[in-house]
């Protein structure tokens, strides 16, 4: 069974899609797993740690043969605040896949609020006057006028974490 360390549909849906296409016939379930980092991780290290902790927690679930951790982070540079995805895929045999996905520049006013300590989800909800946008289109869907929604953003990141499973001969296990 594939266990995802989240119950957010915007994360479960892309895992179901990709795993059905690539590996076929595996049941996918989401469980709440502590990320061990802040609700809104800042920078790559914290975001990777959150994704890795979620994947490890997911793999510890009874019956799990795969554990997946998907964590979104925000990082700041001279251009502003960037939202990006990190995926960690662990298989029971010790094989691991990791990817950092694409990134999208947040509007300056949104970036400033996240820099001041707010969580991105509620800030985006307030901006568009809707609830729980992080479970649907996500910030990326809102900003791209739905051309790239959160499911698609995650699908792409997940695909990029799969090479060690797709080309195992090129990624020897230690
Ligand atoms: O239920 P979980 O798995 O925790 O899903 P999440 O969306 O809350 O958690 P993430 O770890 O993916 O993201 C960290 C925070 O960044 C925010 N966030 C990330 N991506 C977002 C998006 O596309 N749209 C809105 N908020 C987003 C959200 O508020 C999260 O609390």
Topology:
Elements: E1 2-4, H1 9-22, E2 28-30, H2 44-59, E3 66-77, E4 80-91, E5 96-105, H3 108-115, H4 120-128, H5 138-143, H6 150-160, H7 163-166
Parallel strand pairs: 1-2, 1-3
Antiparallel strand pairs: 3-4, 4-5
This protein binds inosine 5'-triphosphate.
Counting DSSP H or I runs of 4 or more residues, the number of helices is 7
The rounded Rg comes to 16 Å
- Please outline the major beta sheet: 5 strands, mixed
Reported by name, the CATH topology is: Maf protein
Helical content band = 25-40%
The succession of helices and strands, N to C, reads EHEHEEEHHHHH
Q: Walk across the major sheet and give the strand order.
A: 2-1-3-4-5
Low-confidence stretches: none
Q: Architecture, according to CATH?
A: Alpha-Beta Complex
User: What's the mean pLDDT score?
Assistant: 97
Structural class: alpha/beta
Distance between the amino and carboxyl termini: 24 Å
What CATH first level would be assigned? Answer: Alpha Beta
Task: Please give the domain count.
Answer: 1
β-strand percent reads 15-25%
Number of strand segments? 5
Indicate the overall shape: globular
What small-molecule ligands were found?
inosine 5'-triphosphate
GO molecular function: ITPase activity; metal ion binding; nucleotide binding
Pfam family, one: NTPase_I-T
Cofactor: Mg(2+); Mn(2+)
Family: Belongs to the YjjX NTPase family.
């Amino acid at each position: 069974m594939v266990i995802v360390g989240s119950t957010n549909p915007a994360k479960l849906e892309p895992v179901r899609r990709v795993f059905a296409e690539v590996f076929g016939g595996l049941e996918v379930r989401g469980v709440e797993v502590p990320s061990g980092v802040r609700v809104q991780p800042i920078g790559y290290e914290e975001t990777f740690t959150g994704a890795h902790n979620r994947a490890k927690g997911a793999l510890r679930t009874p019956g799990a043969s795969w554990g997946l951790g998907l964590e979104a982070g925000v990082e700041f540079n001279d251009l502003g605040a960037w939202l990006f995805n990190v995926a960690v895929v662990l298989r029971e045999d010790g094989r691991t896949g990791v990817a950092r996905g694409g990134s999208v520049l947040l509007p300056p006013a949104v970036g400033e609020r996240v820099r001041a300590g707010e969580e991105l989800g509620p800030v985006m909800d307030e901006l568009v006057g809707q609830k729980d946008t992080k479970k649907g289109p996500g910030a990326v869907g809102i900003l791209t006028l739905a051309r790239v929604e959160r499911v698609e953003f995650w699908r792409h990141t997940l695909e990029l974490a799969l090479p060690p499973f797709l080309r195992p001969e090129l990624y020897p296990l230690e």
